[in-house]
């Protein structure tokens, strides 16, 4: 190769080493930026539900997925998917917005009569599939809608788990609201 060839190869080698270092720093920074593990079923995999480390981060009151993980999500016909993140269940939409919902049957709370129950600042509210608030999050607990009504409570607490790990809410004042959030049976 001669002198120029050797010098050329040396500069290419140095450039490759710098590129590898930059990519490693970027990968490390991205991993640090998304420290939370996720549990979801990837659209591009047959493995089913799986743990995905360094998948998400908290961003104020919401969570954000790392772009590489977001691209792997399997969205339903409503443009939603569910992901377990840091011990909580979330619906994620195609725009990347998230809604922290109650866990039900080891997954995200179902949409009953078009609404799901969500956690906001430790309170339960009801949201539609576009993540619009329909009933304000003012209750300590609420049941899914049935025939346009839901039981709600203020001051109730989670009771002890039974042998199967199921638990019930205890105490507090209970009442019934309709789909618009109007109290139809006062809390007592």
From TrEMBL:
Pfam families: WG_beta_rep. The keyword Signal applies. Keywords: Signal. InterPro entries: WG_beta_rep. Residues 1-31 form the signal peptide. This is WG repeat-containing protein. It comes from Pseudomonas turukhanskensis.
């Amino acid at each position: 190769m001669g002198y120029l060839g050797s010098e050329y190869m040396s500069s290419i080698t140095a450039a490759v080493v710098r590129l590898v270092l930059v990519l490693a720093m970027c990968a490390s920074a991205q991993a640090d930026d998304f420290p939370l593990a996720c549990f979801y079923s990837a659209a591009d995999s047959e493995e089913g539900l799986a743990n995905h480390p360094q998948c998400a981060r908290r961003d104020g009151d919401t969570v954000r997925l790392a772009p590489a993980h977001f691209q792997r999500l399997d969205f339903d016909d409503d443009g939603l998917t569910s992901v377990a993140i840091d011990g909580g269940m979330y619906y994620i939409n195609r725009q990347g917005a998230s809604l922290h919902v109650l866990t039900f049957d080891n997954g995200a709370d179902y949409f009953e009569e078009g609404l799901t129950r969500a956690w906001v600042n430790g309170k339960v509210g009801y949201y539609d599939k576009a993540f619009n608030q329909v009933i304000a999050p003012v209750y300590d607990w609420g049941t899914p809608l049935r025939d346009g009504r839901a039981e709600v409570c203020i001051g109730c607490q989670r009771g002890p788990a039974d042998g199967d790990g199921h638990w019930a809410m205890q105490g507090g004042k209970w009442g019934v609201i309709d789909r618009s959030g109007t109290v139809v049976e006062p809390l007592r």
